[in-house]
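Note to self: keep these together.
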Amino acid sequence: MRLFTGIALPRDVIANLERLLDRLRPAAQIKWSAAYNLHITTKFIGEWPEQRVPELVETLRPLSAAAPIDVSIGGMGWFPNPHSPRVLWLGIQASESLGALARATDEALAAIGVPKEDRKFSPHLTLGRIKDPVPLVTLRKAIAEMPPVEFGSFVADRFHLYRSVPGPAGSIYTQLAEFALNGS
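Structure:
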């Protein structure tokens, strides 16, 4: 099973992101994310044996003691850079508790054999992926002409363990477990 942990977005934020994607999709032939699939990844786990999922859930359960997280979404950019883009992303501004949750998740899962992250945590929403070089002039222009916009703010009071199943129309994400953030 291919797994990750992440924070789901509220419906109003997803609706805002759907409107953004509807505006940008005609500007470039890239692999656009479906708004309903957008989430904030806190830890990519990768392949994990199905029979060990209960162990994973029990390892994640103590992280519920983390505080709820203030999150705002806005600002766009390119990974790895604007000159050779592979990903178009939307920024996440959050309280320090988001980074703390990501680090705690990384530490907890390392104890049961999940490789630790070697990159700095960089919270974002992946709007689209660029696999092959395509003209991006129209997309860059559409982005440049957009006024600075915030796409929503919310308090994340839970995170999830997700399963990712790749498919021809994109991956399908299923929540396997939910962990309330109660700050205790």
